Amino acid sequence: DAGVTQSPTHLIKTRGQQVTLRCSPKSGHDTVSWYQQALGQGPQFIFQYYEEEERQRGNFPDRFSGHQFPNYSSELNVNALLLGDSALYLCASSLGGLDEQFFGPGTRLTVL
Amino acid sequence: AQSVSQHNHHVILSEAASLELGCNYSYGGTVNLFWYVQYPGQHLQLLLKYFSGDPLVKGIKGFEAEFIKSKFSFNLRKPSVQWSDTAEYFCAVIDNQAGTALIFGKGTTLSVSS
């Protein structure tokens, strides 16, 4: 059983560009959450998707948007990239929302 | 908003020493509590979780944690650490009144020397 997978592994962009990160949840999971982990910090919640709707959103600007597809996979889009967006972006999946979240390996985004 | 504090940024221990990592969340209500671990080069994995019931929970690899509601604390313990426990440890909470987001602490780096 594959766990949570994310693509790409690494990404380098320049300021002002746009990026799309992808996540496939663990088999049987219906909820996908996205987190940003800056160097030396704990993960920060960006948003969560359930039944193709954004169920909850953290304190991130509208430049961060997402989508969930009928097969429960998800995308995170970031527009108008800033240097400060450089971080590890983690996807986590769960069944419903309150139980254990399983994390993927992350996508390392570097903005130059 | 709910927040999580982890008291130790970096802990250095010798093998066989006992471990206790502190974790406090900011206010009460119904919470689900978690400890996650990130070994070097690996992704976040769940060590243990508390939802309700016995406040002393046991997790994988000999770790345990105690939920003390009156102190808003969920400290992680292990009686005897091994070199392989070297990792980053994160305490996290879901505040059931606020939704289903995991709120993480900043993490504690544990270095165990053999």
Biggest interface, and residues per chain? A-B, 25 and 24 residues
Q: Helical percent range of chain A?
A: under 10%
As a whole number of angstroms, the C-alpha radius of gyration of chain A is: 13 Å
Beta fraction of chain A: over 45%
What percentage of amino acids of chain B are in beta strands?
Answer: over 45%
User: Per the principal axes of the C-alpha atoms, what is the gross shape of chain B?
Assistant: globular
| Tally of separate helices of chain A | 0
By DSSP, the count of extended strands of chain B is 12
* Low-pLDDT regions of chain B: none
Major β-sheet of chain B, in short?
A: 6 strands, mixed
The secondary structure category of chain A is mainly beta
Structural class of chain B: mainly beta
Number of helices in the DSSP assignment of chain B: 0
Rounded to an integer, what's the Rg of chain B over CA atoms? Answer: 14 Å
Q: Portion of residues in helices of chain B?
A: under 10%
The ordered H/E elements of chain B are EEEEEEEEEEEE
Question: Can you describe what's shown?
Answer:
The complex is a heterodimer of chains A (112) and B (114). Chain A has 112 residues and is mainly beta. Chain A is 0% helix and 51% strand. Chain A is built from no helices and 11 strands. Chain A is globular and about 40 Å long. By secondary structure, chain B is mainly β. Chain B is built from no helices and 12 strands. Chain B has strands at 4-6, 10-14, 19-21, 23-25, 31-38, 45-50, 56-58, 64-68, 73-78, 87-95, 103-104, 108-113. In chain B, the strands form 3 sheets. In chain B, strands 2, 5, 6, 10, 11 and 12 form a 6-stranded mixed β-sheet that branches. A 4-stranded antiparallel β-sheet of chain B has the order 3-9-8-7, with no helix packed on it. In chain B, β5 and β6 form a beta hairpin. The model of chain B has no long low-confidence stretch (mean pLDDT 94). Chain A binds chain B through residues 31, 33, 35, 40-45, 48, 55-56, 58, 90, 92, 96-98, 100-106, and chain B through 4, 32, 34, 36, 42-46, 49, 51, 90, 92, 94, 96, 99-107.
